[in-house]
Amino acid sequence: MGRNIVSLPMLFKKNRSRFDERWSSAWGMHRLFVAIRPPETVREQLLDLMEGMPDMRWQSDDQLHLTLRFIGEVERPAAEDLATALQHVRFDRISMALDGVGKFEKHRNGALWAGVTPRDQLKSLNAKVERACQSAGLEPERRAYLPHITLARWKGKAHRLDAWLERHGGLTSEPWEAEEFILYESQLAREGAHYEAIERFPLS
Predict the structure, then answer these.
(1) N vs C: which end of the chain shows fewer Cβ within 10 Å?
(2) How confident is the model over 44-85, as pLDDT tens digits?
(3) For the residues of 73-106, what is the DSSP string, one character each?
(4) What distance in Å separates the CA atoms of residue 47 and residue 103, rounded to the nearest whole number?
(5) End-to-end CA distance of the chain
(6) Taking the model in full, what pTM does it have?
(7) Distance between CA atoms of 156 and 170, rounded to whole angstroms?
(8) 194 flagged as catalytic
(9) Candidate list 30, 88, 148, 159, residue with the active-site label
């Protein structure tokens, strides 16, 4: 559910009207995250990995992204304050590449992911995004940040994980330049989550 939010000064309020056409609804909660979208060539390379394990819930092309900060559910005014706060993030463009695969696993649920480099630069960008989130009143993120692109999720017992991880452990890609990061809204549907870009923030 939503987190406790502290309103920003009126300086941020005056910009709210320009977001009016972008949110899924004027009222209720908005489930948000901040991410970098990989280019089509990289997404196609990742989609080619998604085979051989029918118990996986593989991500679609539209769902592939590198999360910088998961926000969760917030009310409309807080979402607009966050979008405005993110405008003040300044960071250089990043030359990125895929780097191996891994898994998160907890209580028989988990996720497969592709690693991304350069980790130090991405962690620095994450730290700036985190400061913007806190300036908008969000609670601090306590979890350590690991740059990755989620490929699949599972519930219950997953089979053939070790074989898949060994087969794709040497994953690499041609470098690509990240020119922006994006504030997304996640809309849950029966067929899965749909992500809509609410605001784009250029990297210099």
Answers:
(1) N
(2) 999 999 988 888 999 999 999 999 999 999 998 999 999 999
(3) EEEHHHHHHHHHHHTT-----EEEEEEEEEEEEE
(4) 17
(5) 35
(6) 0.86
(7) 27
(8) no
(9) 148
